[in-house]
Design brief:
single chain; alpha+beta; 2 domains; 5 helices; 7 strands; 48% helix; 15% strand
């Protein structure tokens, strides 16, 4: 048997009036706060982007200034006559070597099978300070004549040739560097002793009886 009776039903509960002044004020306040926060964020991002833009402008200004200076230097640059002459001499030497190689390559039939290998070895072990002006090759003899820009280039070239199959272990009767009548630094490498080798000038560097390492004589 019940002793309490609940006469307070749900329909009698107070209801929230969303259109009341307090509710509307609260909603407006929340919206205003959201707008304020969003505006602050956008303002910060805009300020950062503007600062980065100013930095990029300054960097571009510096780069443009450097470009203008380089262009002014290029405009005022004058060719060095000595450098131009050196380039022309190199071109001439290369042209001589090309003609020698073309002439040798055009000779047919080849007298021995290893001639093409010899040319490949010479090209592979080319010394930048040394130019071959003439060469004579047969089955038993080799003679190379040319020009060097420094005496040290000749032994460097011989050392590199000793690494090839065409020259490894080969004996040379004449290997010298000398000055000709025009004071040009020349070289001679031959498997046969020549008269010019025995009458070499005092300025030459000679190594008679030279044998490149790597094999028997």
């Amino acid at each position: 048997m019940k002793s309490n009776i609940n006469l307070y039903q749900s329909r009698f509960e107070p209801r929230i009036d969303y259109l009341s002044l307090s509710s509307v004020s609260l909603a407006i306040g929340v919206v205003a706060l959201i707008v304020l926060i969003t505006g602050s964020i956008y303002h910060y991002l805009a300020s950062s982007a503007e600062a980065e833009y100013v930095k990029l402008l300054e960097r571009n200004r510096i780069h443009q200034s450097q470009i203008d200076e380089l262009q002014a230097e290029v405009t005022n640059w004058k060719a060095d006559p000595a450098l131009i002459k050196k380039v022309e001499d190199i071109k001439l030497d290369l042209s001589k070597q090309r003609r020698v190689l073309e002439e040798l390559a055009a000779r047919a039939p080849l007298r021995f099978k290893g001639f093409s290998i010899l040319l490949d070895d010479l090209a592979d072990k080319h010394e930048s300070d040394l130019w071959i002006e003439s060469m004579a090759v047969s089955e038993t003899n080799m003679t190379f004549n040319g020009q060097v820009s420094s005496p040290q280039a000749f032994p460097r070239w011989l050392q590199r040739l000793s690494e090839t199959s065409s020259f490894r272990g080969r004996s040379f009767a004449a290997a010298r560097v000398y000055m000709d009548e025009d004071d040009a630094l020349k070289f001679e490498l031959s498997t046969r002793r020549t008269a010019s080798a025995t009458a070499a000038a005092p300025a030459q560097q000679s190594a008679p009886g030279l044998t490149l390492p790597g094999g028997a004589q």
